[in-house]
Amino acid sequence: MLDTESLNRLLARALRRGGDYADIFCERRRSYAFRLQEGAIHDGSTVVTQGVGIRVVIGESAGYAYSDDLSLDALLQAADAASLIARGTPSGERRSIDLTEMRAPALYDQLRTEHAPAAQYVALLERADVAARAYDTRIAAVNAHVTDELQDVWIATSDGRYAHDHRPMITLGVQAVASAKRERASGYVGDGGRTSIAYFAEHTPEELARDAARIAAINVDARPAPAGEMEMVVGAGGGGVLLHEAVGHGLESDFNRRGTSLYAGRVGERVASELVTIYDDGNLPEERGSITVDDEGVPGAHKVLVEKGVLRGYMQDTLNARLMGVESTGSGRRQSFRFMPQPRMCNTYMPNGDASVEEIIASTKRGIYAKSFSGGQVEISKGDFVFMIAEGYLIENGAITAPVKNATIVGNGPDAMTKVTAVANDSRLARRHYTCGKGGQHVPVGVGMPTVKISSITVGGTQE
């Protein structure tokens, strides 16, 4: 979007009042989106956004300004606005910076620069609608959406980094609603990643639609969930939402630098069962949270957060890493050019254990099998969480029995991790379209885990 001469001039302008560091984030994003409702395409859109954000850092503070006017005069004004955070003696225009391009292995298709014809996206939705309705006569409604996004970012920094990343992202989601007598229930399934529409030739819309309809049909017949303390088995893949929310956020460096996380100052200490290892990866091919470089120009990396129950480190962006005397882990992410980066998760998951799923179920006398979750929340400073179960079942005397509905789980993330008593050998990422919210920003992430048993957790249910 901008040539080297312009980037140099903007960096110099941003630092002319002083400051420790400055960076420029340029973004161009093109999106196709279509939505099906009541058997017909309800709307479609094409959106193009572009702009530049400029940041100046001094100590623990940062000044930030952005512009969607790409003229040099407008961008120089943005650089002036960001520079106001520095109150030192004006240093005048700085010398030219030798920008060195950062290179990292391509994790997804860097050559796909165009969308498919609109009719191909519409066909995916229509196929999903037909398949969901055909699955069960009780399916009363189907809603589906598809979004295909092509994002390009360019980052230049005052310490000489320069990087470009071309990031494709496609998402297909299907919601089915089942109705029986006076009961209604829904099921939702989404899929996609940093790939193209060709992905859905193998992972078909029919497959997604049938899965969404299956969940809706199960839930419409489900019995009210019991309440109380019991064992819980968390399902592989989508169960990683629990890991993401209950543990992952507490390992982001800003919370730990400020001392507001329960994990602050505990590197090297045991924080979980010895069965628990947690990774965050920015460099898994085509996964939703993968980034060739982060939004500060640092290559995505493999991070060992917890190893056999021992805390090994935090997810670092440039600002917090600088203040904590460590290196960035490639975890600086932002929603768009309108926002400053924050330390964020990419793809957070737990690797395989030694148990089989059958052994875990057979060892459970009375509990809940939470195959997937529909949402939840966590209080970072305490680690307390509440999650809603999207698809859940009773486990009685070592066997999965009746489906349950309206089940929630209540607990504490660090406490739950100490109660992990078995980890299965079926680890996988969910390949669902998860989006993480933090500080008013939303970014795509991946989650995953194997089937895991937690010895005791509080289940909130409506069974009388």
Give a verbal description of the structure.
The structure is a single chain. This protein folds into 3 domains: 4-31 and 45-101, 2-Layer Sandwich (PmbA/TldD fold); 118-152 and 166-221, 2-Layer Sandwich (PmbA/TldD fold); 228-460, no CATH class. The protein is built from 9 helices and 24 strands. It has helices spanning 4-14, 72-83, 118-135, 205-221, 240-248, 253-257, 318-324, 357-362, 413-418; strands at residues 21-37, 40-58, 61-67, 100-101, 139-157, 161-180, 183-193, 223-224, 228-234, 278-281, 302-307, 310-311, 332-333, 342-343, 347-349, 366-379, 384-396, 399-405, 408-412, 420-423, 428-429, 434-438, 441-449, 452-460. The strands form 4 sheets. Strands 1, 2, 3, 4, 5, 6 and 7 form a 7-stranded mixed sheet that branches. Strands 10, 11, 12, 15, 21, 22 and 23 form a 7-stranded mixed sheet that branches. The protein has a 5-stranded mixed β-barrel with strand order 9-16-17-19-24.
Kindly provide the radius of gyration, computed on alpha-carbon positions and rounded to a whole number of angstroms. 24 Å
Proportion of beta-strand residues: 35-45%
**Mean pLDDT rating:** 93
Structural classification: alpha+beta
The shape, in one word, is globular
**Overall tally of domains:** 3
How many strands? 24
Major beta sheet summary: 7 strands, mixed
- The helix tally amounts to 9
Ends distance: 62 Å
Spans where pLDDT lies below 50 across 5 or more residues: none
What helical percentage do the residues reach? 10-25%
